[in-house]
Amino acid sequence: MTKIQMTTPLVEMDGDEMTRVLWKMIKDELLLPFVDLKTDYYDLGLEHRNETNDQVTVDSAEATKKYGVAVKCATITPNQARMSEYNLKEMYKSPNGTIRAILDGTVFRAPIIVKGIEPYVKNWKKPITIARHAYGDVYKGSEMKIPGAGKVELVYTAEDGSETRELVHNFKSAGIVQGMHNLNNSIESFARSCFEFALSTKQDLWFASKDTISKKYDHTFKDIFQDIYDQEYQKKFEEAGITYFYTLIDDAVARVIRSEGGYIWACKNYDGDVMSDMVATAFGSLSMMTSVLASPHGYFEYEAAHGTVQRHYYKYLKGEKTSTNPIATIFAWSGALRKRGELDQLPELVTFADKLEKACIDTVEGGEMTGDLALITTLPNPKKLDSEEFIKAIRRHLEAAL
Ligand code: NAP
Ligand code: MG
């Protein structure tokens, strides 16, 4: 069999722990035998980030601007425990945060729907896509511990030197304070990415914030969405038969639970972080959630929504078999290959991506799955496979389809 050709490389961002182990298995079993894989490789594993003082993360994001499409493995976001575990020179920021800040844009997360894995919320019939704003707020915040009595203020110094002040709090005793920001440009990009994605997938768009409490910060998000909708999208939405709907975040949460799905829920950065894990879990499994960062400049970075599955990795290091689900990571590859195929007009590559995804779904629907799915499936007598066996089973389905 001749391998499927590629013309432009994908930016490949390798990662950490169990997902790094899966990454190699996926390439060896499901990609390299079938595709003449071209990648521009960046090792975002924590050891190499530490060696390069995290420059490799910046370089990989810059390469994504050059080539347009990236695929990323899950990576460790360092905390105190990781500092000593990996003997780090400093507590590097989240690679995802760094990459999002460089590429701007919005993260869209959608569950992979498979027969036999039923949502916990029994009225959910269609996927709910979470659009997470990928810039600013608490992820770009600065914080202080306030040791004792004293005044904290926000100070804006304009270029002409004039100052505007706003009292945060007059502390009588120790406390904490946080400053955060966002940019109108970024919120506008976020809104446009969401309206565009809604049109291209013909789904309603919901957006929610807490504008009743946050009368300037959150209200600005609400106003920007509404202005762009009124001026640029209202007519297109009406023609497409879809709607834009704004409500308060707490009302949105209640409506989401009562809904049957099938819409995009645009969330501010933190809401998206929290709600995407809730929605993913309620759809069945965190390991079945896809994620793509789409920038308004047309750059795409595909990844799984879950982390590095640290608990499984420690078992793997002890030589135990693990049953870690590779599906979301495989869908990151198929998403990136499909986009590359579309951009470079390589229909064979697009078809390969479709068949790879179908092979994953067919394998699960045929009763072979990893432990996370075997625990919750409604299929009778599921066969629980370890990671390696499961990837080999997918390969059998893929080979049959090719
Ligand atoms: P996690 O890696 O997502 O795993 C949490 C738990 O969810 C696992 O222990 C496992 O449950 C289950 N799980 C997640 N993915 C699974 C899969 N593919 N197959 C089977 N089970 C799966 O989150 P974490 O343990 O909180 O974080 C580990 C590391 O990942 C952290 O260092 C964090 O910084 C990083 N992280 C990275 C990203 C990213 O790069 N996008 C995102 C989130 C977290 P059981 O143990 O019960 O089987
Ligand atoms: Mg999260």
User: What gap, in angstroms, lies between the N and C termini?
Assistant: 10 Å
Count of spatially separate domains:
3
The helix/strand class is alpha/beta
CATH class of the largest domain: Alpha Beta
Rg from alpha-carbon coordinates: 22 Å
Q: Which quaternary structure do these chains form?
A: single chain
Provide mean pLDDT, rounded.
95
Main-sheet strand order equals 2-1-3-14-13-4-5-12-10-11
What characterizes the major β-sheet? 10 strands, mixed
Report the β-strand fraction as a percent range: 15-25%
**Annotation field: number of helices:** 14
The arrangement of helices and strands along the chain is: EHEHHEHHEEEEEEHEHEHEHEEHHHEHEH
Helix percentage range: 40-55%
Envelope shape: globular
> What is the CATH architecture assignment of the largest domain?
3-Layer(aba) Sandwich
Structure described in brief:
By secondary structure, the chain is of the alpha/beta class. The protein is 45% helix and 21% strand.
Keywords:
Isopropylmalate Dehydrogenase, alpha/beta, binds magnesium ion, two-stranded antiparallel ribbon, 3 domains, 14 helices, 21% strand, binds NADP nicotinamide-adenine-dinucleotide phosphate, 402 residues, single chain
Helix and strand layout, with pairings?
Elements: E1 10-14, H1 17-31, E2 39-43, H2 46-51, H3 55-67, E3 69-72, H4 80-85, H5 95-103, E4 106-111, E5 129-133, E6 142-146, E7 150-157, E8 163-171, E9 175-179, H6 184-201, E10 204-209, H7 217-240, E11 244-248, H8 249-258, E12 263-267, H9 269-282, E13 289-294, E14 300-304, H10 310-317, H11 327-344, H12 347-365, E15 368-369, H13 371-374, E16 383-384, H14 387-401
Parallel strand pairs: 1-2, 1-3, 3-14, 5-12, 10-11, 10-12, 15-16
Antiparallel strand pairs: 4-5, 4-13, 6-9, 7-8, 13-14
Bound molecules: NADP nicotinamide-adenine-dinucleotide phosphate and magnesium ion.
Magnesium ion binds at residues 273, 277.
